[in-house]
């Protein structure tokens, strides 16, 4: 049975941004609502522009269903071309991946998005010509390789009036002054200097225009090997020890060249180690952390757990949730990265030792570790503007290849790796473990991960500062000619109005250090799906209470599921690391001091908001962290209104700039999917596991079935 909303009578046209062009469209397209496995849905128009794929129904024309957390650029039924992950066509109930030229056109289109939304469109009632146009248009514009200048970023920049102030207190690190200020802030200017050697990119196109090196490193040294083998400063600790990074020399070299380079490196190391420089510890991340290929493989498997086609699929994976989650290896990679960051923090904080991170280009895992160390050790990096400045410094100006790693141009899948997403996943672990230490919320991190795929901001669409600078010049529609004026993602007013932006700020942020009082235990919501892997045995912890409670809770939940590989890793930390870690854990947490993540077993969790927000079956009715946030924001609103009344009684002038907070009175409509989706109908969990139903349907296979691992690298990888 198909529950149908009648086709719309009135014409609905897409809202186009400046520079956005309508490329193709199809009417009478039926969009399924995959809430409960039924065929319920709505008719509308499917359009493809040079910016997005959009579905327009009669609800699109009305403002009655406006969500409280509305993105002004990308609507609920919009998919930017860069956000499309894979497109499948359904032919006679069989799914087939669509790429390139199509000989036959499908009766149903399934679009999997990088933000983990899944769209199902039925084309059975659409005219054949329109089906050909829309399917080939969508596949061509979202899946085929393209030139950089063909990105919507350039169309928008040339057509949009740029009158927004994009800085928003975020330090952009594109001037010498910004680097000198950062040196002064961290007291690193005694031993390090900002250099202009790369002005005009005469040293290297991969290096930024300005960067910081040890004072004793000469300009000739920097020029000698095009910036390779030069320790570049990231951050200085309060005790003077510094975090540095360096791009390694190519491994395939003849003996004489490698000998010369070795002598050069020895000289560089000596300049750092001699007084007033502390000892130096080098760490080659390419050998001590998983490779980019491993990270990509793990994430590809992991995301398949959340790209759910239907309610039946959800419950089928629910039976094997722990084994599926462990087999992806994604949580283990997060744990290893956090552990490495703790090791680096120990060297800086306890041993007063400089740490030099080495990687082939120093623009991938170096960015992850250096950013994490700063978030853990520098409370400024836990403020919103501080975190944004950190991303600018280490990633955008630091030369992380966003264009290649996100595969925005569909040039090469070999280069693709979710390195920046890995950082956000690691930061989220810290945010959920120590909420008062962060000025921003998990919603901020989720929205930031979504912004990776919105090509109106230049922040995540270039491989280097050089690539951006060389592509800045262009013809503008408004003036005769001139450089493009790109937007920066840090101007949140472009995407959200002030009410929506309130969800990005943590109302419980501890602005001033306070003595740590005994923390109240918060009520634990009963999750339908456990978000961390269980321990095989209980371990005593120096912090009483939490760890044991977490372990007991998990053991009750899983009754004997044994997942040992995750915990009993061969890379157990050395004694000095464990001493440092335990010593820190035994003291009260200073939210403005050093923060070390808890990394044992079930402490590493799945980032529920990002990965489960589109799955109605996984929602917690009236629960989740958003329920707490809703209550807090309600209280804030009440306090503000009382303050206004008091001011009126005292006849004081009211400035009128009271920060607005969202009205969340109707908490009956809230679930853990908020603010990305309101309460949705939930499918009923089958009395028998889904896999058992399938077995009963096909008795021949019953004997062969077992609770084996499901291979996630199949169709959809």
Give the topology.
Blueprint: E1 4-5, E2 22-32, E3 41-49, E4 52-56, H1 58-61, E5 78-80, E6 84-91, E7 94-97, E8 108-113, E9 118-122, H2 128-143, H3 152-159, H4 176-185, E10 192-195, E11 211-214, H5 219-224, E12 232-236, E13 242-247, H6 255-273, E14 280-284, H7 285-288, H8 292-304, H9 311-318, H10 321-328, H11 330-349, E15 354-359, H12 365-377, H13 384-396, H14 402-405, H15 419-433, H16 442-451, H17 465-470, E16 473-474, E17 482-483, H18 498-501, H19 546-558, H20 564-567, H21 575-585, H22 608-612, H23 625-649, H24 690-697
Parallel strand pairs: 1-3, 13-15, 14-15
Antiparallel strand pairs: 2-3, 2-9, 3-4, 4-5, 6-7, 6-8, 8-9, 10-11, 12-13, 16-17
Helix pairs in contact: 8-10, 11-12, 12-13, 12-15, 15-16
Question: What keywords describe this structure?
Answer:
PH-domain like; 4-stranded mixed beta sheet; Myotubularin; alpha+beta; 9-stranded mixed beta sheet; Myotubularin-related protein 12; 717 residues
Largest sheet: 9 strands, mixed
Mean pLDDT: 82
Uncertain runs are: 475-480, 519-528, 536-573, 653-658, 699-717
Query: What's the gyration radius in Å?
Result: 27 Å
The number of distinct helices, counting runs of at least 4 residues, comes to 24
Strand content: 5-15%
Helix proportion range? 25-40%
Secondary structural class: alpha+beta
Family: Belongs to the protein-tyrosine phosphatase family. Non-receptor class myotubularin subfamily.
InterPro entries: MTMR12-like_C, MTMR12_PTP, Myotubularin, Myotubularin-like_Pase_dom, PH-like_dom_sf, Prot-tyrosine_phosphatase-like
Protein name: Myotubularin-related protein 12
Subcellular location: Cytoplasm, Myofibril, Sarcomere; Sarcoplasmic reticulum
């Amino acid at each position: 049975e198909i529950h149908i909303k009648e086709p719309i009578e009135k014409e609905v046209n897409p809202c186009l941004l400046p520079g956005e062009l309508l490329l193709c469209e199809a009417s009478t397209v039926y969009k399924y609502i995959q809430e409960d496995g039924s065929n319920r849905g709505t008719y509308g128009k499917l359009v493809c522009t040079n910016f997005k794929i959009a579905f327009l129904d009669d609800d699109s024309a009305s403002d009655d269903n406006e969500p409280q957390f509305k993105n002004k650029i990308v609507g609920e039924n919009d998919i930017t071309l860069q956000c499309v992950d894979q497109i499948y066509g359904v032919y006679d109930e069989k799914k087939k991946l669509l790429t390139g030229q199509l000989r036959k056109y499908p009766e149903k289109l399934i679009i999997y998005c990088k933000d983990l939304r899944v769209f199902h469109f039925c084309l059975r009632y659409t005219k054949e010509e329109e089906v050909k146009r829309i399917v080939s248009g969508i596949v061509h514009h979202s899946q085929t390789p393209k030139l950089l200048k063909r990105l919507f970023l350039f169309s928008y920049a040339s057509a949009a009036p740029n009158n927004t102030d994009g800085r928003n207190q975020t330090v952009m690190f594109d001037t010498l002054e910004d680097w000198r200020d950062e040196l002064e802030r961290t007291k690193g200017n005694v031993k390090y200097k900002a250099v202009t050697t790369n002005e005009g990119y005469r040293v290297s196109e991969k290096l930024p225009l300005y960067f910081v090196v040890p004072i004793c490193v000469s300009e000739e040294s920097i020029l000698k090997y095009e910036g390779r083998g030069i320790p570049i400063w990231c951050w200085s600790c309060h005790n003077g020890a510094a975090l540095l990074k360096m791009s390694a020399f190519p491994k395939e070299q003849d003996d004489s060249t490698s000998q010369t380079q070795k002598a050069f490196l020895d000289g560089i190391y000596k300049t750092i180690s001699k007084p007033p420089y502390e000892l130096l510890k080098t760490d080659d991340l390419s050998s001590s952390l998983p490779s980019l290929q491993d990270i990509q493989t793990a994430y590809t498997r992991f995301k398949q757990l959340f790209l759910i086609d239907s309610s039946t699929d959800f419950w089928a994976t629910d039976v094997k949730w722990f084994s599926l989650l462990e087999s992806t290896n994604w949580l283990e990679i997060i744990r290893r990265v956090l552990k490495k960051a703790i090791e680096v923090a120990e060297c800086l904080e306890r041993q007063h030792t400089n740490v030099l991170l080495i990687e082939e280009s120093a623009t991938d895992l170096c960015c992850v570790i250096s950013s994490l160390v700063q978030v853990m050790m520098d409370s400024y990096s836990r403020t919103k503007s501080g975190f944004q400045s950190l991303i600018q410094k280490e990633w955008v100006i630091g030369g992380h290849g966003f264009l290649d790693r996100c595969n925005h141009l569909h040039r090469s899948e070999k280069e693709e790796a979710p390195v920046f997403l890995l950082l956000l996943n690691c930061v989220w672990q810290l945010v959920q473990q120590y909420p008062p230490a962060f000025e921003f919320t998990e919603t901020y991190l989720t929205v930031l991960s979504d912004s990776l795929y919105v090509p109106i901001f230049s922040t995540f669409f270039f491989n280097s500062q050089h690539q951006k600078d060389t592509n800045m010049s262009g013809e503008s529609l408004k003036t005769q000619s001139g450089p493009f004026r790109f937007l920066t993602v840090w101007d949140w007013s472009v995407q959200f109005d002030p009410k929506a932006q309130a969800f990005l700020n943590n109302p419980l942020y501890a602005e001033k250090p306070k003595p740590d009082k005994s923390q109240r235990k918060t009520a634990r919501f009963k999750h339908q799906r456990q978000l961390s892997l269980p321990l095989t045995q209980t371990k005593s912890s120096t912090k009483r209470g939490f760890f044991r409670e977490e372990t007991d809770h998990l053991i009750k939940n899983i009754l004997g599921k044994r997942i040992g590989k995750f915990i009993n890793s061969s890379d157990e930390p050395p004694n000095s690391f464990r001493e440092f870690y335990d010593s820190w854990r035994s003291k009260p947490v200073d939210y403005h001091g050093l923060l070390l993540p808890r990394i044992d077993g079930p402490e590493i969790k799945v980032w529920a908001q990002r990965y489960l927000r589109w799955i109605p079956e996984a929602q917690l009715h009236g629960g989740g962290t958003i329920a707490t946030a809703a209550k807090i924001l309600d209280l804030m609103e009440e306090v503000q209104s009382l303050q206004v009344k008091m001011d009126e009684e005292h006849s004081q002038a009211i400035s009128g700039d009271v920060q607005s907070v969202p009205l969340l009175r109707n908490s009956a409509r809230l679930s853990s999917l908020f603010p990305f989706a309101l309460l949705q109908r939930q499918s009923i969990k089958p009395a028998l596991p889904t896999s058992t139903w399938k077995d009963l349907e096909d008795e021949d296979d019953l004997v062969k079935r077992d609770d084996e691992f499901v291979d996630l690298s199949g169709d959809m990888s």
